[in-house]
């Protein structure tokens, strides 16, 4: 058996490690400790690559938060409820006293319209805020965005709102609102 001999050291390799230029080049090519933002290569699929600033990320996180979604749904629900209240008050005039004069004054009609609009606006605002908040919390807890979130949120919202009329009304409200939410989600996903 022959004894293993160490190969001779190449003098060029020793010079490479001793010279500062080659050493810094090797560190840059093999890997350095500095990561500059301008050197990041992001593969692009469509359009230019846009790196978001911290302010854009903060605004995006605020807009996607559950309180913001709930507040937005509350405001939109209030406006929609006011429009529905205005429409229904024009279809069904409410006569408070049947023995009173058949001719109502404009002030009485406007007062009825205002009361109807405020009633519908409050109900729609509450409904929108509760549904949106519950759905967002369920989606955050589950970590998924699918049709089940709307169904669960509809059940919880319908149950909470129906509980004002009793347990039976709460159960029927939960089942009805969950079914309605499922149908709406199915319809919206089929269109898109």
UniProtKB/TrEMBL annotation:
Q: Which family does it belong to?
A: Belongs to the Tim17/Tim22/Tim23 family.
* Chain's role: Essential core component of the TIM22 complex, a complex that mediates the import and insertion of multi-pass transmembrane proteins into the mitochondrial inner membrane. In the TIM22 complex, it constitutes the voltage-activated and signal-gated channel. Forms a twin-pore translocase that uses the membrane potential as external driving force in 2 voltage-dependent steps.
What does the subunit section of this Swiss-Prot or TrEMBL entry state? Component of the TIM22 complex.
Q: Does the keyword Nucleotide-binding apply?
A: no
Q: Which InterPro entries match?
A: TIM22
GO term, biological process aspect, one = protein insertion into mitochondrial inner membrane
Superkingdom field = Eukaryota
Bilayer disposition of the protein: Multi-pass membrane protein
Organism for this UniProt entry: Euphydryas editha
Question: What is the protein's given name?
Answer: Mitochondrial import inner membrane translocase subunit TIM22
């Amino acid at each position: 058996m022959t004894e293993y001999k160490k190969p001779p050291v190449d003098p060029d390799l020793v010079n490479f490690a001793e010279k500062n230029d080659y050493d810094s080049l090797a560190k840059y090519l093999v890997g350095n400790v500095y990561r500059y933002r301008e050197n990041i290569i992001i593969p692009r699929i469509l359009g230019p690559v846009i790196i978001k600033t911290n302010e854009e990320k903060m605004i995006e996180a605020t807009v996607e938060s559950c309180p913001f979604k709930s507040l937005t749904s509350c405001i939109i629900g209030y406006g929609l409820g006011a429009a529905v209240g205005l429409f229904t008050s024009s279809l069904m005039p409410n006569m408070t006293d049947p023995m009173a004069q058949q001719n109502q004054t404009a002030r009485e009609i406007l007062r009825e319209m205002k009361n109807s609009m405020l009633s519908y606006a409050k109900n729609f605002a509450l409904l929108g805020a509760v549904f949106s908040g519950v759905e967002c919390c369920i989606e955050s807890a589950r970590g998924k965005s699918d049709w089940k979130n709307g169904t669960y949120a509809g059940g919880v919202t319908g149950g909470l709102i129906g509980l004002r009329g009793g347990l039976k009304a709460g159960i029927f409200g939960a089942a009805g609102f969950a079914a309605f939410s499922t149908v709406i989600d199915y319809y919206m996903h089929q269109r898109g």
